[in-house]
Each structure stands twice: as structure tokens, then as C-alpha cells.
Design brief:
alpha/beta; eight-stranded mixed sheet; 18 strands; globular; D-amino_acid_metab_enzyme
Length: 392
């Protein structure tokens, strides 16, 4: 990967005097990923998934300094109502929450804030979500219905366990109930995780992805028609896709927008996709502090494990030098032995397995860009944590 090597050359040159551990964003790669994402989406607008970013300045790179979005990038998909309320305070006027909420205090704030009610769309898949919102004082709010997009073949379930809504009739029934209770049903979401988030080197995944996308085409169209029957207007939001399925989702009938988050940073879990060319943009550096045995080094810190089912694919991905973790210790909380002979004080560079989770480990990320043709540190950007925000 020539782009990866070039990014690492820039980062090593620009940050050699900075102490580790440090997280570094290669700004030229981020810009390239944003441009590439828009090209992949074609004429369909893109929504940025904040859970895979968690750095406000990066959101501003995508949507503009006022988080207002534009012709190509529509708004933000947040992962928390409290986060969404904060983003509205920061200027964002279009926040779709990707998951249902039962946060009664945040719902009370939403119900009392006309500006937030106009900007924020709640995700629901059960009337209980509406009942909890109403009990907290959030009446007449914007709602989007989460529709199950997994592939189910008899007893086999392929995909994430999200919505209990599998059929058009179930979606339409909930939409009618929400509409009768005075809420504004603005659309539906379809997240095909078994397509967007599974690497193409998994045995047998190709047919699973192809079949999943074929089955979703009529479902999305029929749901759009059902919502129009209920509300009397075409859905404002028909959200689909993720980083690994942008082209297929964006070109599908009825889809109005696709969601992308990991595609901005391109973490390790996206190294083996055929649907797009990864260009990693976010890295972290750790220093060697021990030489415990010939041919080995011990890095200080490094236990930045990705969420999900435990396994080797949850470990950080070594970048420079290439190395393996020990089988007994893996990536450790305060020390990480590796099978590479770094000198004490030498630095290893890695990438997180997933995108936004690295931001939970660092208060800031160092930004490297080219200045008059020379790589340099041009800024440091606070993560959500660095801004004193922790949304779960």
C-alpha cells in the first residue's frame, strides 16, 4: 500500500520529537477519503457516523466549520441523544440518532428545546420508545424506523441483532401508531451489517453479500411506499449502507442517503474489502521501553482492543515495523511485548481495529499535513474525551 507507506513516512518525520503514546491523523489521507466517499456515493448524499469519528474537528472537515453539511454530505448519524443535543449546540442542524434511546433526562431536554426538536431525529423500532419519550415530555418529535436488514435463511441469522421489525406490515403498523400519537415519521433505516462491516476474505461471504443486497431492494421500496401511505409524503430519509457497501446501497432504488464513518479513518477491520480501496488515516505510536529477550521488545501501553466478539481481529494492526503480538499477552494495558527487535526508545506504529474507539483512549490527536511540501504537525484536535464528553 503505497499510500500507507507515504503517510507513515510523513508521520514519522513530523512527530519524531513528540512523546508517546500519541494518536496521529494524516490529514491528506483524511481529505482523500472524504473525496473518495463522495465519489463512491455518486448522487446519493452521505451521512457521517459520529461513533466512528468522535473528534469534532473531523466532523467539521466533513460538514464544514458550522456542521451544516452541503450538497454531498448531509448531516451526522449520532450514537447518543446527549451527543446529538451537544452537536446541535455546536451548530449541526441534521442529526439522525442511529439507535433507540430511553434516556429520560435527555428526552426531557429534547422536548423542551424547539431548535433541537427540529434538528434531531430519534430512531425507534417499538412503540415503547415513543411511550418513554412522551412520558419524559418529548411530544411530536421526528422519528425514523429501524428495519431489520439481516439475512435470515430458515434458522440461520446473518447480520446484527437490531430491529424486531422484519416485514413491511410490521413497519407500517408502527408508523401508523407513531403518526396517530402525533410524532413525525420521517423515514426508515436499513443497516446491512453483514455486507457493510464484514471483510471480503471471510469464507463464503461473497454470496451472502450479494443475496442480502438483492433481498433489500424490494423491502426498501415497499417500506418507502408504506410510509408514504401513512404520512401522505415521500420519506425524507431512507438511510442505508455503511463504509463497506456504499456503492451498492447508494445506487439502490428508494435510498436517499448512505452512512459512512469508518471510511474516513479506515481502521484495520477494513483492510480486506474488495468494494473500495482503503487509505488508512489514523495511527497511534508506542515506544519500546524494554528488550526482554533476543529479537523482542516491550512497548509501553497498547491495550486498545476493538469491541465485538473477542478474537485476533480485535487487536491493533501493526504498521511499522511489522510484528506479531505474543499469544499469552497480546496488546496489554500498560505493556505490550512484540517479536520485533526495536531499540529502547524506538517507536512502533499501529492502527486500531475499529475507527472511533481510539478516540476514547486519547484526549487529543496530532494532525500532520504537508506545509510547502514538507510534512509537519499543523494542529492538535481534541477528541470527545478531550472536550470532556463521554456518551457511552
Amino acid at each position: 500500500m503505497r499510500a500507507l507507506d507515504a503517510a507513515m513516512d510523513d508521520i514519522e518525520r513530523a512527530t519524531r520529537d513528540l512523546p508517546a503514546p500519541l494518536a496521529v491523523l494524516h490529514l491528506p489521507s483524511l481529505r482523500a477519503n472524504l473525496e473518495y466517499t463522495v465519489r463512491r456515493a455518486g448522487r446519493t448524499r452521505v451521512r457521517i457516523a459520529s461513533k466512528s469519528v468522535r473528534v469534532r474537528k473531523v466532523l467539521e472537515q466533513a460538514l464544514g466549520a458550522d456542521l451544516s453539511g452541503g450538497d454531498d454530505i448531509r448531516g451526522i448519524m449520532a450514537y447518543s441523544l446527549r451527543e446529538a443535543l451537544w452537536l446541535v449546540e455546536c451548530g449541526c442542524r441534521d442529526v439522525l440518532i442511529g439507535y433507540p434511546t430511553t434516556d429520560r433526562q435527555a428526552l426531557a431536554r429534547l422536548g423542551a428545546d424547539a431548535e433541537a426538536k427540529a434538528a434531531i431525529t430519534l430512531m425507534v423500532d417499538d412503540v415503547a420508545h415513543a411511550e418513554i419519550a412522551e412520558a419524559a415530555g418529548a411530544h411530536g418529535v421526528r422519528m425514523c424506523i429501524d428495519v431489520d436488514s439481516s439475512l435470515r435463511l430458515g434458522p440461520v441469522h446473518l447480520g446484527t441483532r437490531r430491529s424486531p421489525l422484519h416485514t413491511v406490515d410490521e413497519v407500517e403498523a408502527l408508523a401508523r401508531t407513531l403518526d396517530a400519537r402525533g410524532h413525525e415519521v420521517v423515514g426508515a433505516m436499513f443497516y446491512e451489517a453483514q455486507v457493510a462491516g464484514v471483510q471480503d476474505n471471510v469464507f463464503g461471504i461473497g454470496p451472502v453479500k450479494a443475496l442480502s443486497m438483492r433481498r433489500l431492494v424490494p423491502l426498501r421500496q415497499e417500506v418507502a411506499q408504506a410510509l408514504e401511505r401513512v404520512t401522505g409524503r415521500k420519506p425524507e430519509i431512507l438511510n442505508s449502507g455503511g463504509t463497506g457497501s456504499v456503492e451498492a446501497s447508494a445506487s439502490a432504488p428508494a435510498v436517499t442517503e448512505v452512512t459512512v464513518g469508518s471510511g474516513l479513518f479506515v481502521p484495520g477491520t477494513f483492510d480486506h474489502f474488495k468494494s473500495f480501496t482503503p487509505r488508512p488515516a489514523l495511527f497511534f505510536g508506542l515506544d519500546a521501553v524494554r528488550s526482554p529477550a533476543p529479537g523482542m521488545s516491550t512497548l509501553l501501553y497498547g491495550g486498545y482492543i476493538a469491541s465485538g466478539a473477542p478474537g485476533a481481529d480485535r487487536l491493533p494492526v501493526p504498521v511499522r515495523p511489522r510484528f506479531a503480538f505474543t499469544s499469552r499477552e497480546g496488546a496489554g494495558e500498560v505493556q505490550t511485548p512484540i517479536d520485533a527487535p526495536l531499540p529502547i526508545g524506538g517507536r512502533a506504529w499501529l492502527r486500531h481495529g475499529k475507527a472511533g474507539e481510539l478516540a476514547e483512549r486519547f484526549a487529543e490527536i496530532v494532525v500532520v499535513d504537508s506545509v510547502d511540501g514538507t510534512p509537519a504537525v499543523v494542529d492538535t484536535w481534541a477528541t470527545y474525551r478531550g472536550e470532556g464528553k463521554c456518551f457511552g
